[in-house]
Specification:
Layout (H helix, E strand, L loop, with lengths): L13 E6 L10 H18 L1 E8 L3 E8 L4 H21 L11 E4 L2 H13 L1 H4 L14 H4 L12 H4 L5 H15 L4 H12 L6 H8 L19
Helix pairs in contact: 1-2, 3-7
């Protein structure tokens, strides 16, 4: 069966996951982490992609972003992959691929899934047992969005700005949102399934709007044979 092209649509939030080959590490120390994020910032700016949230784990990277063009996200990921792998292989005396094939991508409905996706990314290290709180993990956008440090990589989404009328109010509302998401499973499961399946996530109206913008199927087709009409 032919592989579907990746679903990317300008102006919509995208949840992206890029894993290491065979789940091997994509970073070995803080120098690698800083270099990967620096490459990401440069490539995002060149491809006109706004990064709203991220979390860098040892063997994979999560991104929440909005591209200005249909080709923005693929261009950014291709450039990031080439530049970082070249750096990583040179520094660590290795050769060959680093990534597990193509990155995974899900277009999500902003109004219902963008803020939960931010919390999903922030809590990834907590779920993995790497930190007791999202604020304790240094390699994500959480500290920036919660007002604990400044991260030039991040472009705040309008829905984040709508969380409050002052910076303190927005940061407190975001931190409370992440705290409330601890232990929830339904939304996290939906986000995970959508991104690993390369499907869109949203309401029926959202799916219908996507269908007007791209010929690529946005939802997984029902399994099995169609039911016969009576």
């Amino acid at each position: 069966m032919a592989r579907l092209p990746r679903l990317t649509v300008a102006g919509y939030p995208h949840h992206i996951v890029q894993r290491g080959n065979n789940r091997q590490p994509i970073v070995l120390d803080d120098g690698d982490r800083r270099q990967l994020l620096a490459h990401l910032q440069f490539c995002a700016r060149q491809a006109r992609v706004a990064i709203h949230a991220y979390v860098l784990m040892d063997n994979h990277l999560h991104l929440l972003l909005t591209p200005e063009t249909d080709t923005g996200a693929p261009r950014m990921m291709q450039a990031l992959g080439r530049a970082y792998v070249r750096y990583f292989n040179t520094r660590h005396g290795r050769s060959g691929t680093l990534w597990e094939g193509r990155y995974r991508c899900s277009v999500i409905e902003a109004e219902t899934h963008l803020l939960p996706c931010m919390a999903y990314l922030a809590l990834n290290p907590v779920r993995a047992g790497l930190a007791s709180r999202a604020a304790d993990y240094p390699w994500s956008s959480h500290a920036h969005l919660a007002g604990l440090r400044t991260d030039p990589l991040i472009t705040r989404h309008p829905l984040y700005w709508a969380l409050g009328n002052t910076p303190f109010a927005r940061e407190a509302a975001y931190a409370a949102l992440v705290e409330a998401a601890i232990g929830t499973t339904a939304e996290h499961t939906a986000l995970g399934r959508a991104v690993h399946g390369n499907w869109a996530l949203g309401s029926a109206a959202f799916m219908a709007a996507l269908a007007q913008k791209t010929p690529r199927r946005a939802q997984q087709a029902p399994r099995g044979r169609p039911r016969k009409r009576a």
